[in-house]
Amino acid sequence: MKRIVALTGAGMSAESGLKTFRDADGLWEGHDVMQVASPEGWRQDPELVLDFYNQRRRQLFDVRPNQGHELLAELEQRYSVDVVTQNVDDLHERAGSSRVLHLHGELLKVRSSLDERLVQDWTTDLVLGDLCELGSQLRPDIVWFGEAVPLLEPAAEITSQADIIIIIGTSMQVYPAASLIHFAQPGIPIYFIDPRPTISESQFSNLTVFADTAVTGMQKLAKLL
Q: Within this chain, do residues 98 and 161 fall inside the same structural domain, yes or no?
């Protein structure tokens, strides 16, 4: 069975009603990203950071997977499919994808602020005073700016085994996630779905570009595959 690796970003979830990570003005939901997505922001105002992610977590219960998520999950009927996503939502899982690696963490998990290995599921608000088993404050299990991406190596290994790569809703220009494409085997088919593609078919002989949203692009690709 051929193996597909899908590399997905914020554009994958946009049609479900989740905003892309950063708006045109450089703000995320009205906040400078460094206030709410960096170790410095956490140290300066942990309550603001917790409230920010509590709002994002609550929002997950008001949205559902879009057809792009569902069509990607349906490919498991004919292929071995791994999803490597930069998204912190759970929409891939809810759509039925069985193997999902979250490069940047998950909204529905929290971890110890002392030991990043102490992770637990979390579906309600997280507040100051919620402690891990070591007695330290729990924090969102999100990889913030300036922090290492612990799952980058497993993601690279998964990508290196792909027979087909699908890139959806990400420019693949933000590192370290963008480096994953360099681990792909030479010459394998690569499909790139994004309404504003940053690369063109003229640059790569093995590349097919769909200048579409995730839903429309996956509709076209599902017929092609």
A: yes
Q: Which domain holds residue 130?
A: 19-62+113-140
Does residue 135 sit in the same domain as residue 211? Answer: no
Q: How many domains in the chain?
A: 2
Taking the C-alpha atoms of residue 158 and residue 151, their distance in angstroms, rounded to an integer, is 11
Question: Nearest-CA neighbor of 110 among 121, 101, 102?
Answer: 121
Residue 98's alpha-carbon distances to 7, 44, 92, 108, 160, in angstroms, are: 15, 38, 8, 17, 19
Q: How far is CA 56 from CA 19, 63, 113, in A?
A: 10, 11, 20
Q: Which are the catalytic amino acids? A: 104
The enclosing domain of 48 has a CATH number of 3.30.1600.10
Residue 187's pLDDT is 94
Question: In the chain, what is the straight-line distance between the N-terminal and C-terminal CA atoms, in Å?
Answer: 13
Q: How does pLDDT run across 52-73, given as a tens digit for each residue?
A: 999 999 999 999 999 999 999 9
Distances (CA, A) of 23 to 33, 89, 105, 142, 162: 10, 18, 20, 19, 32
50 and 127, same domain (yes or no): yes
Confidence of residue 23 (pLDDT cuts 50, 70, 90): very low
Specify the pLDDT at position 210: 96
**Could you tell me whether strands 80-85 and 3-8 are parallel, antiparallel, or unpaired per DSSP bridges?**
parallel
99 and 52 belong to one structural domain? no
The answer to whether residues 28 and 188 touch, using CB atoms and an 8 Å cutoff, is no
